[in-house]
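Supplementary Methods, section 5.1.

A reviewer requested that the exact input to the structure prediction be made available. We therefore reproduce it here, unchanged from the version used in the analyses.
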Amino acid sequence: MGVGRVIVGLGSLVASGWCVAAEGGSAVQFLPGLVALVLLLGLYFLPTFIAHRRRHRNALALGALNLLLGWTLLGWVAALVWALMHQPADPRPL
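The structure derived from this sequence is encoded token-by-token as follows.
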């Protein structure tokens, strides 16, 4: 997952928050939910971030496992363990 996609996703969340505020809701009421969502998404994709940072050889497959089965606790733990397994570094640049 590229940084650009993350920025675009967060930008759309902020824009939707402003839409909520424009419809009579308060942006202050929306902000705690936005912060919680960003933190939970970061925690959900933690195995993928770890694999990418460690240049894991199977980072793409690990990210797919995390995306598709991470909602189950077993899938998330499996992705985390796989991301933390020692493997030789991939010589490709980040």
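Residues 45-94 form one domain. These observations are discussed further in the main text.
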